[in-house]
Specification:
Largest sheet: 9 strands, mixed
Structural class: alpha/beta
Number of strands: 23
Strand content: 15-25%
Amino acid sequence: MTPVTTFAGKTVALFGLGGSGLATALALKEGGAHVVACDDNPAKMAEANAKGIETADLRQADWSKVSSFILSPGVPLTHPEPHWSAKLARQAGVEIIGDIELFCRERAKIAPNAPFVAITGTNGKSTTTALIAHILREAGRDVQMGGNIGTAILSLAPPSDGRIHVIECSSFQIDLAPSLAPTIGVHLNLSPDHIDRHGTMELYAAIKERLVAKAGLAVIGVDDPMSRAIAEACEAKGVNVARISIEPLGVKGVFADGETLVGVTGADAAPIASLSGIGTLRGAHNAQNAAAAVAIALALNVSPEEIRSGLHTFPGLPHRMEEVGRIRSTLFINDSKATNADSTEKALKSFDGIFWILGGKAKEGGIEPLASYFPKIRKAYLIGAASDEFAKTLGADVPHIHCGTLDKAVAQAASDAQALGGSAVVLLSPACASYDQFPNYEVRGNHFRDLVRALPGIEAKGA
């Protein structure tokens, strides 16, 4: 835990007692603050009470005694309209901040030079966060990883000069962290997302820009127009910028030349590492993630040899093009995290000879944007509520069957792939939410993994 001592002796109101909210309340209390916490879910209030956190209905609070209001990042700050608790705080003139801001203030107080790497982007931020943490740990560094990935930031060990915090930040967290100024700030890419929470794409981009605007080094992906504009704006303000791309660069940064990662310093460009044969980093999107990780590692004085070793031993993240196992020349891939067509596109780009398991609760647009990849599909196996809709889209172009459940789809796809022979990939990449049959994509992916590992002849990875 990182006790938040910057609020010692002060009264702090908090709304949202999920995982990060409860961790925040405990860290504030440990640091000497008087915390009054609230949640719309009575069970969350009871859980906080059981852990010694005072709870109350903030509608009845005396806001004149509150120094700061801590809002969970999952609760609307501005759009579609501010949550009632945020409205009360604003009416009382009380600042509204989040757990990332608390960490930043504590770091400024106790260890202002402690290395702090903050990563954001519409896509790829979890993989990049996990990859850089892995490379640094493999190089013998003391690393704390968390934020929007896994562990809440205030549940991590406190900042210190010999410890590197590698933190994934969502746009919601950035919006609640006005003093965010990491040692290295990373912005990967921008595409439309969370517009319901930010109002416009321009406001969404402006929030993402805040993470790199005050960084000691800003590592910025420049493969989309709005991110290129962020890089140019930061540079114009005097920020030290390193660009990353899957296209050649003529300025400082790291780019991917096919599977080779090339570092550029001044007029010199030199290969740093190769992604060839690294199954956990397939595809152009992962090349961008790896380029960012290489740029960060080089800035933290990790040697090229240590970088190469870390890349090759990276285990990947569960449910993101995760290799589950093989039966002879058939590879089984768990991409349950692909809950829309944009995410599934990355998997379809990365493989050939695909036996595709898809379906669930469909998102707007369905799978029509994926039509250009249909020639790569040997057969499709439809599950869940979207089956009829997706069958119409696949039409006569892609052989397909209605399986209904994931259990039937895995058994049929495995049988068909082995019967046809040759190299094949059984790919769970649903392009759908899971809610029709599973509570979340993790449960769906775990079930797929269990089904595959139970197949006769499977050589399971990581079992």
